[in-house]
Design goal:
Order of helices and strands of chain B: HHEEEEEEEEEEEEEEEEEEEEEEEEEEE
Strand content of chain B: 35-45%
Structural class of chain B: mainly beta
Largest interface: A-B, 83 and 95 residues
Number of helices of chain B: 2
Distance between the termini of chain A: 97 Å
Number of strands of chain B: 27
Oligomer: heterodimer
Largest sheet of chain A: 10 strands, mixed
Helix content of chain B: under 10%
Number of helices of chain A: 9
Strand order of the largest sheet of chain A: 5-2-1-10-9-8-20-21-22-23
Shape of chain B: elongated
Strand content of chain A: 25-35%
Number of strands of chain A: 23
Chain lengths: ~525, ~425
């Protein structure tokens, strides 16, 4: 009988039930009235760490500063303008900050014009930041020539960052590439340079932040960040020396705290939906595409199965990116040296690509079909210039080139100690230049027909030393090879300019632009 | 179709009504089950620290390059479950999955700093983080109300991460809840805990809600903030966080918008609660500390009790200058703008026993207002009219001294607390 059959719900009953539940969901529970979020407002804080810009596209730029305040939350007004006086304002916004990011102010400005210089400043309730300068990348269809620079390895207590002084004059660079070892986690050092002591190792979140705060008291580094857009990728010393070999493995705390602090203090935001993803590419018109490569986070060490320096996902991304790129020049910002570097058939440093020959060959195979790939490299504290040969890097035609930009201040690599330049060249004929006794950085000028790469060097044992040309190379479009324009002779294994060791008692408080900064530096260096 | 047939059967008309209620209940259960489905279906093997009673200790770690001061916890959230009976500190949808850690008690007061964030390779999402100060060390967990919390629901900053700092009295454990909100994909979170000893000192009066002193309306007072802490009774204020708190209570005497204000280097935030006791749900308004001070307008009715929570930053030798206004003084710590009163005599102002006057106030309130009316030098009427608030109001002033009120001009003087108006001339008709 129909009356005995199980009854189905009517549409009205379902509608009433659904609406009732939706309404119930809207009624705040006991916690619903809690004050969760407030509109960002300008708050207290002082600007002791300068300003910075980076992670650019042709229409966007990440702008950075930091508020020093005891308040757990604060904010600052950002003004972006087309002139240094900040009168032709193009954007203004209030940027919030809180203790979860150590007071960092960071915002990605959008809607900017390509290839345009902008000026910006932050204002809090207690002061105004220095006025920063930056420049957006060229439009995708642009053919304008480009100026890049690259550096790595700036150990605080092994020398002054005079390399950065050299880029402060003149127009903004299109991009300054920082290729790792922006800070050093350890404090031991062969020498103290010019009263610069680094007393605190970075092992956890607080000390990693303090390390960055110490480094950012350097006037040259601050000015570099103030005047040029920067792209940074880390190497090992942001965390621990050669930490990806797992010997010993850094704690989850040390590794992730270092990543977090690095993200906080540099002008970039995560790429994609992964928390600490740093690998990404920058398209600079039709002239060039820069591929930033992370050679630490995804590494599987040499003595483990499936060893890889980039990780499968990143290697596939890089290969696909190189193949698909329509830019004339493909620049790989590569923390660790890719050209083989060995003696007697043995690599001297398995921590670089020599420890990962399978990944290297996969990449060289791609380069053999993609012209005009240039690697700009850090890590090894030595200027090297090398051809990348198709077959394992040791034979076959040159399919790409590598320019290793020395170190900003870090001493020569112990792995190369005792080796002469002649021995290096004899064992590695694809390498045509080696110099570990000078410190500096690399410059690159790119146009439609050629790339001109210049190594610049300056002494680091005293501040304010001007840089000189160390070596100059030119690479013609389609050649996958370079010619030497000039180069000074250099030595590899015997750094000549290490400063004379000093005792802690002889240390003097470093000069700092403001009293507050001098106080902080004294505290961080633990000087009286 | 079946349902319609049943409803349409005349002899069984009563049954469908019963069936209708039953059907509604079934529908509610069905829809609720549908909504709750994803949560109920998860968590096959929750981690061992899935509940407050099983909170894990934080790990001390080593580094090859030097000593490590902070401690670490790794929160496995993929299989964690929600905490029944623990109200989610960041509102509905927060702490959908959570695990627990315990920061052991310190022999002295201590600043406990907690940071939680997604680790390498995980999703770029903000974990939820809450801290519960315990009444003692090693006891059963007390999770009635969180003292501090941060997370996705409270975030505005670009880089993701949650962070809280608490000044905790000596001998108190802190339970830490690390979770993720509904819809998040975060599989793990790293918890970093730092504990820094604070000088042992007597906490400022009002450190506990129970010790909150009565605070007068309309007056500014210095309030010591030294050694203020957070204890298990302090409800977290994610929008206006503070490391310690000092409480004052205020009896509201007039309905309307009142203003609490505080100024001082040690003021991190100011929050106003209205109710019998401050709870997580009755915070009415809050503001963050600033060099010029913080002002927090809030609405309350006469007879209600307002609780003023001065959040501290931990600055050395801190005091706050605190003031709470009634509905009149909208800027209790700033110089009062001069009030202006204009006087008119409406038609029919002159009455047998009184004068009716229309007073219009611009600017802050005038308290204890008194009106005096003179004719030919003699006082003909005077009286108290209470507090004048902004806007127009007709007041009635009684005849004085048995003097007759005449037609013609009169002079009117309005006086009040810190207010006096020059005589105004009106024409009585």
């Amino acid at each position: 009988m129909p009356g005995d059959r199980p009854r189905l719900l009517t549409r009205r009953e379902l509608t009433v039930a659904g609406a009732g539940l939706v309404l119930a969901a809207q009624v705040p529970d006991a916690w619903g009235a809690r004050l969760l979020k407030k509109t960002a407002k300008v708050g207290p804080g002082r600007f002791l760490d300068g300003v910075a810009s980076g992670d650019p596209t042709d229409t966007t730029m990440v702008l950075w500063s930091r508020l020093t305040t005891a308040q757990q939350r604060s904010g600052a007004r950002l003004v972006v303008a087309e002139d240094e006086g900040l009168t032709r304002t193009v954007a203004t916004t209030v940027v919030p900050t809180d203790r979860s990011v150590d007071g960092v102010l960071k915002v990605r400005m959008t809607g900017l014009k390509p290839d345009t210089v902008y000026w910006y400043a932050f204002q809090s309730a207690q002061g105004v930041s220095p006025v920063g300068r930056t420049k957006t990348l060229p439009a995708p269809d642009s053919d304008v020539p480009l100026r890049l620079a690259f550096s790595s390895c700036q150990k605080w207590n092994e020398g002054f960052f005079n390399a950065h002084l050299d880029v402060l004059e003149g127009d903004p660079l299109d991009l300054y590439l920082m290729l790792g070892d922006y800070t050093y986690e350890y404090v031991r050092s062969a020498a103290f340079a010019g009263g610069r002591d680094d007393a605190s190792p970075s092992t956890d979140l607080r000390s990693a932040r303090a390390k960055l705060a110490l480094y950012r008291t350097d006037e040259r580094l601050r000015e570099l960040h103030r005047l040029h857009p920067v792209a940074h990728v880390w190497d090992d010393h942001e965390v621990a020396d050669d930490y990806t070999d797992g010997d010993p493995a850094p704690s989850v705390l040390q590794r992730n705290a270092s990543y977090k602090a690095s993200f906080e203090w540099l002008p970039r935001l995560p790429a994609g939906k992964e928390r600490f993803r740093t690998y990404r590419s920058y398209r600079l018109g039709r002239m060039a595409e820069v591929f930033m490569v992370d050679e630490r986070q995804y590494r599987v060490d040499t003595d483990q199965p499936g060893r890889t320096i980039l990780g499968r996902a990143q290697l596939d991304w890089l290969k696909a990116g190189l193949k698909a790129s329509t830019a004339r020049w493909k620049v790989v910002a590569n923390p660790d040296m890719i050209a083989p570097l060995g003696v007697g058939g043995q690599g001297v440093n398995p921590d670089q690509w020599d420890g990962y020959p399978e990944d290297r060959q996969e990449l060289l195979d791609v380069c053999s079909g993609v012209p005009d790939v240039l690697f700009v490299t850090g890590d090894i504290h030595t200027f090297f210039t090398a051809r990348l040969l198709r077959d394992g890097g040791t034979s076959g035609p040159s399919v790409a080139t590598e320019y290793v930009g020395g170190s900003v201040s870090s001493s020569g690599l112990p792995a190369l100690a005792g080796l002469s330049t002649a021995a290096i060249f004899a064992a590695n004929p694809w390498i045509t230049y080696a110099n570990g006794s000078d410190h500096g950085y690399g410059r690159m000028e790119l146009d439609a027909g050629r790339v001109r790469t210049t190594y610049r060097a300056a002494a680091v044992d005293r501040p304010g030393v001007a840089s000189r040309d160390l070596a100059v190379y030119e690479q013609q479009l389609g050649a996958n090879d370079y010619t030497t324009v000039s180069q000074e002779p250099g030595e590899v294994g015997s750094p000549s300019d290490l400063p004379i060791p000093r005792t802690a008692a002889q240390l003097r408080p470093s000069a700092a632009p403001t009293r507050a900064l001098a106080r902080r530096r004294r505290a961080l260096e633990r000087l009286p | 179709m079946t349902g319609r047939r049943t409803r349409g059967a005349g002899p069984r008309a009563a049954a469908p009504r019963r069936g209708g209620r039953h059907g509604l209940a079934v529908a509610l259960v069905a829809v609720a089950a549908l909504l709750a489905g994803p949560v109920a279906g998860a968590a096959a093997a929750p981690p061992p620290n899935d509940a407050p009673a099983a909170a894990a200790a934080l790990d001390a770690v080593t580094a090859e390059n030097g000593p490590v001061a902070e401690r670490q916890g790794v929160a496995d959230l993929a299989e964690a479950t929600a905490d029944a009976g623990v109200a989610p500190c960041l509102g509905k949808g927060s702490f959908e999955r959570a695990v627990w850690f315990r920061v052991p008690a310190s022999p002295t007061p201590a600043r406990v700093s907690l940071d939680a964030f997604a680790p390498s390779g995980d999703a770029d999402e903000t974990p939820d983080l809450a801290a519960y100060v315990q009444p003692g060390a090693g006891g059963a967990p007390v999770t009635a109300v969180a003292q501090a919390c941060d997370g996705a629901a409270a975030k505005q900053v670009a880089d993701t991460g949650a962070s809280v700092a608490l000044d905790v009295p000596a001998g108190r454990d802190v339970l830490v809840q690390v979770g993720r909100s509904a819809g998040a994909a975060l599989a793990r979170a790293v918890l970093v805990a730092g504990v820094d000893a604070l000088p042992a000192a007597t906490a400022a009066p009002g450190d506990l809600v129970a010790g909150a002193r009565a605070f007068p309306l309309g007056r500014a007072r210095l309030v010591p903030l030294g050694a203020a802490t957070l204890t298990e009774e302090d409800p977290a204020q994610p929008a206006c966080p503070a490391a310690g708190t000092v409480w004052r209570r205020v009896a509201v005497t007039r309905s309307g918008v009142q203003v609490a204000a505080a100024r001082g280097a040690g003021v991190g935030a100011l929050t106003v609660f209205v109710g019998r006791r401050p709870t997580a749900g009755n915070a009415r308004a809050c503001g963050l500390g600033a060099p010029a001070g913080v002002e927090v307008p809030f609405r309350a009715r006469r007879g209600q009790r307002a609780w003023i929570r001065v959040g501290t930053t931990g600055a050395e030798a801190p005091t706050a200058r605190l003031a709470v206004s009634g509905p009149c003084d909208q800027t209790p710590l700033r110089p009062v703008r001069r009030s202006r009163v204009t006087v008119r005599a409406p038609k029919g102002a002159r009455r047998a026993r009184a004068v009716r006057l229309r007073l219009t106030l611009r600017g802050p309130c005038v308290r204890r207002a008194r009106v005096t009316v003179r004719q030919r030098g003699a006082v003909v009427a005077r009286g108290r009219v209470g507090t004048l608030t902004r806007g127009a109001r007709v007041v009635r002033v009684r005849r004085a001294g048995g003097r007759a009120l005449r037609r013609g001009t009169a002079t009117v003087v309005v006086r009040g607390t810190r207010f006096a108006r020059r005589a105004a001339t009106v024409r009585l008709r």
